[in-house]
Every structure is written in C-alpha cells, then in structure tokens.
Amino acid sequence: GAGVSQSPSNKVTEKGKDVELRCDPISGHTALYWYRQSLGQGLEFLIYFQGNSAPDKSGLPSDRFSAERTGGSVSTLTIQRTQQEDSAVYLCASSSQTGDNQPQHFGDGTRLSIL
Amino acid sequence: GESVGLHLPTLSVQEGDNSIINCAYSNSASDYFIWYKQESGKGPQFIIDIRSNMDKRQGQRVTVLLNKTVKHLSLQIAATQPGDSAVYFCAENGSSYKLIFGSGTRLLVRP
C-alpha cells in the first residue's frame, strides 16, 4: 500500500514569508508526528496527533510554528514569518497506534530552504 | 541523543562482511527501541524494533541486540551489501510516544 506522502518535496522561499507543508499519512493510521532534521543531524520532535485527542505541541520551537490535522487524516505544518534557522528537512511519520508502541513510518520529507 | 553535527561516526566495511552498528541510549525508562536506515534524500526507513522484555530479535539479514544493564543497543547486518550503505539511527521511546533519536552512524560498504 501507499506510504506516507509529503508535499512539496522541496520548498525555497524568502525570509519572512509563510510556508505550508503537507502530510498524507498511511491510510488507517491514527497517530501522526512531525519531526525536523537539520543537516547531518538526528530528528527533533515537533508535534504529535492521536485521533481526536488534543495534540502534543511541546516540541514546536516557537509560536511561528503551528500544525493542524483535519478529519483525522491529512496534516499541515505552517511556519509563519520564516527565518533562516528554519531551513531543514521536515519529516512526517504515522503509526497505527501508540498504546502498544508501533513503529513510526516516515515520508521522504520536505526540504525547506530559507533565503 | 546528542548531536554530532556534520561529522557522523562512520563504519567502513568490505562487501560481504558482517557489520555491527552500536548505540548507547539515554533513558533507563525506555521500553521500545527501533533501528532506522536513511539514504540520502529519503526519509528514515524502518528496519527492526525490539521491546525491553527481549534481548535479541532477528529479521532478514539483521539482528538487534539489547543490553539493558548498560543501556546499549546494536544492529548487526549479515553479508553487508552495497545497498546497505546509508546512515543508521537508533531510537528509543523514553516510555512515551515521542521517539528520541541518536545522532546516527554512516555505513560505507566497500566493493
């Protein structure tokens, strides 16, 4: 079946602009995660959605970052007034459930470059 | 996990040899561990997982070993192939749903 799909795959924008990144999880997966990966580094947790529960936003680095998940499926990560330090690869993952520790499956990410 | 920036530890092996990639995890409360493989320009790909009630788990050409006493995790790849060249990350759950990723090890397979 189809894996996690992210769009766009690459995004170049000017400092100060807003960007919106999209994630389409694996069908039937109730848990969705956003991570950020800076060049040559590991993954940094940003936000987590599980079903209809309130999202865990504890990893968002500033109030310029926000995310939504509509209808329990597609999610969008929005970065307002982008800064150069926002340049990174933004990865989305989904899993079937979290109660019993299921593996997270990742998309190929959106490579964001802020000029 | 701590970040080592651009200078990832690198393991270079001859094609056909076995590879062992090591990881020290940080949280003694972690009870679920995963190994991921990440190729250039791609997202992390799930390889194998293990729960804390196990010491060893085997997959196809891969084995994960868990030593809870010293908080150590290893990934063994048998008969390493050129397609195995990638960055490998271990991850722990820290007793929650948030995965905590290690800084990664680059595996280079020499033909």
Keywords:
heterodimer, A: 115 residues, four-stranded antiparallel sheet, 0% helix, B: 111 residues, six-stranded mixed sheet, globular, disordered N terminus
Care to describe what's here?
The complex is a heterodimer of chains A (115) and B (111). Chain A is mostly beta strands and 115 residues long. Chain A contains no helices and 10 strands. Chain A has strands at 5-7, 10-13, 19-24, 31-37, 43-50, 65-69, 75-79, 88-95, 105-106, 110-114. Chain B has 111 residues and is an all-beta fold. The radius of gyration of chain B is 13 Å and the shape is globular. The chains are: A mainly beta (115), B mainly beta (111).
Helix residue percentage of chain A: under 10%
| Strand proportion of chain A | over 45%
- SSE-based structural type of chain B: mainly beta
Distance between the termini of chain B: 32 Å
Largest interface, and how many residues on either side?
A-B, 25 and 29 residues
Blueprint of the fold:
The complex is a heterodimer of chains A (115) and B (111).
Chain A: E1 5-7, E2 10-13, E3 19-24, E4 31-37, E5 43-50, E6 65-69, E7 75-79, E8 88-95, E9 105-106, E10 110-114
Parallel strand pairs in A: 2-10
Antiparallel strand pairs in A: 1-3, 3-7, 4-5, 4-8, 6-7, 8-9, 8-10
Chain B: E1 10-14, E2 19-24, E3 32-38, E4 45-51, E5 56-58, E6 62-67, E7 72-77, E8 86-92, E9 100-101, E10 105-110
Parallel strand pairs in B: 1-10
Antiparallel strand pairs in B: 2-7, 3-4, 3-8, 5-6, 6-7, 8-9, 8-10
Structure described in brief:
The complex is a heterodimer of chains A (115) and B (111). Chain A is an all-beta fold and 115 residues long.
